[in-house]
């Protein structure tokens, strides 16, 4: 493994933030300029030198403009050989693209660049080690997008940089949070998940930070809060967007100070935690609406992982279903698999798991059919109807012209009916059976419905 390199700018960290580059076995970070460009590459002439095989001599550049309150940040590939990937798409060389705080730019197969918000200090960056963890039972990584997310999660896990995981409900955000924990040096410490949406109203502060005996009515003993319970391990703030603003302010202070003050206590308690947050809410929009603190968002989004919905990961969908079916997977009929793969899965992995469990019970040991899934059939959709045609004059036999006219009328009726054979037959005043026989006689493909 290459020797770790850590380049820290010792000046106070400005609100512009920092750039952090990670690879297996090393890291380097540098403060962004207040304006202008920061060039990254293997050359010693770059503003940030990264001596790694995935980097070109001048690989990419970050461009900073605007005021402290309204910073505009873009990234530009400088014509690198391995390319740079942002949000799953390869950057076009020479064309700057807007980038948000915490977004990942992949460079080659191993290196990723993280743009960090203003609250990342020098002590927030630690040197990664070569450590990976096995995937959880509920996680598979058959699709390319999931494999990239796993690689990013395992790379960033080695440090203490905070991670924000975004995605739809049930998409597997907690599974990725657990992967970060298990791939980190804190793997043997506690893994505490707080469902911020389920915290009792009026007791949020006590649940998060704990309380001393007699602090309020009913507090008959001292109790450590959930943040304190994660000491030495990983704290997962699930549905962090549901936290009330007052609790957000106190959480921010606790994370910055690395200590909690129990309700009724006079002295704080130090805490050593790694924070992973998860939400399906658009936190950036919530910041603009005044429902989420901007400084807390910066503090939580050291690196952002976007978990796509299951419907966008068909390779994962089939593999997950096979894993959930277990030994019964060989008894799933073709019509059941077709329905599983066609379903949009609004509830994502969680919904898939429940559907599979129910189907296995209903099948009672026999073949698992589409009926056992109890899913709505996919909406019927007609294949594109043939385009209308226009007759051209002919000098051949009259019978040929008549057949051509009839064929064109049938094609036009199909097009007008959107491929619906019954409607097209009615439009022509023809029995459906006769209409179907004409399709066969003229070699016109029958529009198919569904799959």
Short key terms for the protein model shown above:
451 residues; alpha/beta; six-stranded antiparallel sheet; five-stranded mixed sheet; 20 strands; 30% helix; 19% strand; disordered N terminus
Quick rundown:
The chain is α/β, with parallel strands linked by helices. Helices cover 30% and strands 19% of the residues. It has helices spanning 144-157, 173-182, 204-209, 226-229, 245-257, 283-288, 294-300, 314-325, 334-342, 348-363, 370-373, 398-416, 421-427, 432-441, and strands spanning 18-23, 26-31, 36-41, 48-49, 60-66, 71-77, 84-86, 89-90, 97-98, 104-107, 111-116, 163-167, 191-195, 210-211, 223-224, 234-238, 259-260, 269-270, 274-279, 303-307.
Describe this structure as you would to a colleague.
The protein has 451 residues and is α/β, with parallel strands linked by helices. The protein contains 14 helices and 20 strands. It has helices spanning 144-157, 173-182, 204-209, 226-229, 245-257, 283-288, 294-300, 314-325, 334-342, 348-363, 370-373, 398-416, 421-427, 432-441; strands at 18-23, 26-31, 36-41, 48-49, 60-66, 71-77, 84-86, 89-90, 97-98, 104-107, 111-116, 163-167, 191-195, 210-211, 223-224, 234-238, 259-260, 269-270, 274-279, 303-307. Strands 2-1-11-10-7-8 form a 6-stranded antiparallel sheet. Strands 4-3-5-6-9 form a 5-stranded mixed sheet, with no helix packed on it. Strand 5 and strand 6 (71-77) form a beta hairpin. Helix 1 packs across helix 2 (173-182) and helix 13 packs across helix 14. It is globular and about 95 Å long. The two termini are 51 Å apart.
